[in-house]
Amino acid sequence: MPWFNNTAYLKMVDSMAIIIAQSYQLARSRLASASSPVMRAVIQRDQLFSQIQWLKRELEILRQQRADCPANKRPEFSPGQRWSFCN
User: What is the pTM of this model?
Assistant: First the structure.
């Protein structure tokens, strides 16, 4: 059996990813409470960047769901609604 199909290996990789993500969040929260205005600005920029990345991923998922849906079952938008998306 290939190593990438091994459940124990995948669980271990997932656990390591969670530990890294949690330590990163802890470091960010500690830096966010720093008194330095430069550090607060860096953290705020980092938080906004993270939020943008999450929104891009969510949009990517929604677009993929829309593309996977048959054309006759997709929601219809009026020309006015379509125009408001472009503004």
Answer: 0.48
